[in-house]
Known about the structure:
Largest sheet: 5 strands, mixed
Structural class: alpha/beta
Number of strands: 16
Helix content: 55-70%
Strand order of the largest sheet: 2-1-3-13-6
Number of helices: 35
Radius of gyration: 32 Å
Oligomer: single chain
Shape: globular
Amino acid sequence: MRKFQFVILLVFAVLCISFAGCAPKEKGKIKLVVWGLQMSEESKGIEAAVAEFERRHPNIDVKVLSMGAGGMNPQKLMTAIVGKVPPDVIHQDRFTIGDWASRDTFMPLDGLIKRDLCRWERSKNKKGQIPPIRPEEFYKACWAEAVYKGKVYAIPFNTDDRALYYNRKLFREVGLDPDRPPKTWDELLVYAKKLTKYRKDGGFERIGFIPNFGNSWLYLYSWQNGGEFMSPDGRKCTMNNPRSVAALEYMVSVYDALKGVDAINSFSSGFKANELDPFLTGLVAMKIDGNWFTNNIARYAPDLDFAVAPAPVPRARYEGKPPFTGQPKFITWSGGFSLAIPRGAKHVEESWEFIKWMVSEEAQVIANEAQRKYNMSKGRPYVPWMTANSKVNEVIFTKFAPKQKKFRKATRVFLDLMAVSRYRPVTFVGQRLWDEHVRAFDYATHHKMSAQEAMDEGTKVVQKELDKVFNRSKYGLLNWAYPLSVVGIGVIILFVICFRKLRQYGPMGRLAKAETVAGYLFASPWIVGFLVFTIGPIIASIIFSFCDYDVLHPARWVGLLNYRELLIDDWSKYTSKALYNAGFLALFGLPLTLITGLAIAMLLNTKVGGMTWYRTIYYLPSIVPVVANAILWIWVLNPEYGLINAAWRATLGQWFALPAPLWLTHEKTAKPALILMGLWGAGGGMILWLAGLQGVPQHLYEAAEIDGANWWSKFWNVTFPMITPYLFFNLIMGTIGVLQTFETVYIMTGGGPVDSTLVPVLYLFNCAFTYFKMGYASALAWILFIIVLILTLVQLKLAPRWVHYEGERAK
Length: 811
């Protein structure tokens, strides 16, 4: 009967599993997966365009996923491509196209473009057909940014550029002509000083201009001054050229003229987004930002008296003096997104049809019509977005021009500037170049290096990456036969050991042998899983640490090159700083955390009513999710409106005139801020301390009291020796935990300011999943493992001198 019931249940389970995967689908429908198109209330137009495509193609079902892949999250896209399950279309930030194309991840589209042009010319009935892609219709900057080594790897979808927004009301308030914005860098600095307003305590009430607030960065200032970041052939980094250095020096001078980068960062740390944007609330009088910000003004502050003008330039450029003779007075910097087809996509033709449709004039008209209708339903003005197609742009901005004059004038400024737009270098080191130019800005404005020194350092880093790739061919491909043979020999040795172990039982141990075999069989799922999913990756990481490996290309054997770079070439730049920061947290943060946890445990070990509730309250912070914890403490530690600084100003600030700390925004207080935050979770360790305290025999305290011991003597001579095993455990686990610090730093500081919170695991993550230097990251992982192993062995060696166990005391 039981066997029959078991069979029935088994059949029922199989049927359930079978039918679970058989959800009804429309017969013959193609599922087209698109990543990166953000779907929100601001993308009603995109939704309308996608819906119209589906209506015209009844056999295609478009699945749009905002996976973050198009939002500068390369990990998901890389995983999908390596796993051979890529999306059909990717909405990708255009400046990364060259980087991805260099890894053979995107399909070249030249053949499809030429084919469609030929078909269009031969076609007699063009009605209902999607027009072909014509490169000459796109802005030169947009199209060039999607081309790598002469091949087109993406079709530009939208675009943006940068200009100067300024508050006309604030101009009038300080006596400036609202119809005469600054034209040159010199004027910009004068205006910035005049528009800045200070509080009585010396802080900012309003700031005229922040060079890097909005969306300008060093790139724009450098191009305005005639600087370049890469040589025309893409083989040399020229970030440290004199004109780029001079541009950085100008940015530093503006920060210094307005009380310095620390004061400005402290003020800007209180900035909010959307309707509380500092430009909309009058906290910032001028800023360089993209055309998308016009939409924010229309949505959140449509009555704001603002205007837009080209971003100020060096005086020599504005006056047309050498070396700018014959060049335009003003230039801008454009970016935006493109639509690409990853290699391995299942539906190439359908993907291509979708891309052509989305960038077509008809689709853009439908999208703008739907978005305008939605905006009007919400009672706010509509400002159309710019497309990368200049021909389509003129149609859109003629048909959907904003009704208010100030918005029309603003959009016209951005449209006209696209003719003189620059774009970021198309190179496989684009992300590294960007990060190093940001790092140079950070170091220069904090006066940790001169502008020249900071740019020189960044140039060396980028050039090293260029040389490594261009010289990659001199290293041979990894021959997997050698490491696999070593692994195979290890497996054989393991089986031989197990076999000999079984033979030791002899003829009299058949039962024992059978039980041993049964034991191995029952444990085999775990053993296989451990070998494949734990030991396997460990062995692979050892092998890759001696290789140049970027996941998508075959690994190349480079020997000890990764270790040499880590311990010699990059020691002063990154490795030593990451280890120093981890050491600082271990040396000062770990003891404080242990002492705090022990102190809380001693308080909670007393016999007081309601102790259960107190223990719960102290323990709760340790189970708060890491992300929520980090966001909470970003708010608590905010220099402008954080709880700690509010209390500081009300007490120490008033009594002793002590300035409030800048916490996460300053290099000297960033690590103490992380330590302070770590004390918040001391309740987790408190549980172990409490268990240890409750295990101390009461008769020892009674004997000590009879001998006249005070509270300190009882703690030092009774309590402490009895809880040393718990201290030893917490010390080892705490040391490992500190060296593995990642989430809080990644969320709260990103390693800044000036690398003051860069920790080993964050550095490892950036190398592996931002730059895809898997071999280098593997080497760093093993160095970190060796450090943890050495520290643990040292503690184990010293433990017998101070750790006292119950069994030892009994002896």
